[in-house]
Amino acid sequence: MEKQSHLLLWKAVFVLIIIGLGFGIYAGSKSIDYTWRWERIPQYIINTEATTVRSPFDGSATIEKGKLIVTSDYGDDPLVIKKFDNLLVSNGDLVFEGDPLAEVENWNIGPLTWGLVMTLQLSVVSLVFAVVIGLFAGLARISSNPALRYLSITYIELIRGTPLLVQIFIFYFFIGTVLDLDRFTAGVAALSVFTGAYIAEIVRSGIQSISPGQMEAARSLGMNYVQAMVNVILPQAFKRTLPPMAGQFINLIKDSSLVSVISITDLTKAGREVVSSTFAPFEVWFAVALMYLVLTGALSWAIQRLEKRLSASD
User: Fold this and answer.
1) Which residues form the ABC transmembrane type-1 domain (predicted)?
2) 131 and 94, same structural domain?
3) Could you tell me the pTM of the whole model?
């Protein structure tokens, strides 16, 4: 009972700290000379603005059986509008080219959501290649072959020792020019190679954390090195490296924001474009941060579920 009350006390402290932080942010926002315009943001996420259908020629409008028919004065094929939500003309009205005829309500994905989709595409594709690169580089890192081991060490130290932004420029302006790569491919390549170096070290540490007796036991059962690694060592190493691997995956999503410097319209570049059209930088960047948080939070939740499932299978 005493332990439970102690936990409740610390939970109350946590809630008070969060409330205090929220109040501090609110007070700080009130202390600056800034007009908040949150109502401008939703249309850049999901646009529900009605589309106006205009007349392509001069003619007359007729309404028959729920359809709007515009007959041309010049013998063109009539315009037939079967579905509309708001009719802007009456039966028998004369219309001229460009006149609004009807409005159709629809839902369109806004630029911020398109940027989120592009960020997700970049992250998923880069993640697949990064895992492949990291796995092979990690295995080469512990190889008994000096050439493979030294190549892996050179790759890891070279990539980890230079900024990702510089690598993106090199991949796009130099390697991309030589190999004729588009922006998306150059961005994916830079992110994959960068993240692969960190995954290689995670794989290496995971494998080396397994007792050498596991490999010896597998070899004594008649397995060769590849079979022992695939069936015995790597499954155990995967469980141990899952938390740091998840952290690296989350970093990949956040690092993908840097590809906006080569004009890929990811979430960050979409945010900059929206800021230039709305003049509401605080609201836009808060919204962008929240969308990144949704991506990373969903990935973190999925990894935690996988960890629990793997621990239950032991």
Assistant:
1) 116-303
2) no
3) 0.79
